[in-house]
Amino acid sequence: MANVKVAVRVRPLSKRENAEEGRIIVEVDNKVAKVRNIKVDNRLDGPWDSREKIVAFSFDYCYWSIDPEDPKYASQEVVFQDLGTSVLSGAFKGYNICLFAYGQTGSGKTYTMMGTPASVGLTPRICEGLFSRQDDYSEQPASCRVEVSFLEIYNERVRDLLKQSDHKKPYTLRVREHPETGPYVQGLSQHLVTDYKQVVGLLEEGIAKRITAATHIHDASSRSHAIFTIHYTQAILENNLPSEIASKINLVDLAGSERADPSYCKDRITEGANINKSLVTLGIVISTLEFADVQ
């Protein structure tokens, strides 16, 4: 049975938006995000325009991350306590979990998922939680094994970010489907890690290899989808017999969606088309999961 939850995070204005005298049109009220329609708001009231000035959307979580001095400010730690601990709790119970950041270019996806050295994001925090397991989740297993992999999908092709690849043919991995375990990437390297420091080293190595490019919205926009996968296996005793509980955590930093611009070079246009195509497919998958959850 699928269980889909949605969280929205409101970020501060970027330098470019401040220079263009942009303004924040979103308000957060508990689990409701209210968006002001500027076009309607600037017009005179009249019967010819029935659109609402403010439209409200409900989510499972809403985070106001504009001003650190604001009492309502949601820091990286707050986001982790809501989302990251749920991921850890599910993984310790043996569930497969996927957590991904979706949004327009420059909306703060990579910051929320990866963070910075001074403000660590969800992915490193979740990895740290696997090695500093709290009693709140479940009883400590006799032993556990953690293996990680890191890939990117660029222009519908897959590359291993933790493996030296052929520069002539860097995107050679293929997606297959196993009859029992489901979809997998053939030839993707898996790395056994024994502590948090090793995980951080692999994360930094993979992030450095990701493809980025400047766009009109973001100076260093991620042009590929990045998937950091954690295979977490616990050795336990069940009815005095050795057994294992295996779970898989997919932490995904999606490429940002952006409208096509005729002034872009051919590479940017091709990238954008492939990004949007894959995001549409993702939307179909989520809709299917939500329908299955209702059923």
TrEMBL record:
The gene is LOC102380600. One of its GO terms (molecular function) is microtubule binding. The keyword Nucleotide-binding applies. This is Kinesin-like protein. GO terms for biological process: microtubule-based movement. It comes from the Eukaryota. Signal peptide: none annotated. The keyword Cell membrane does not apply.
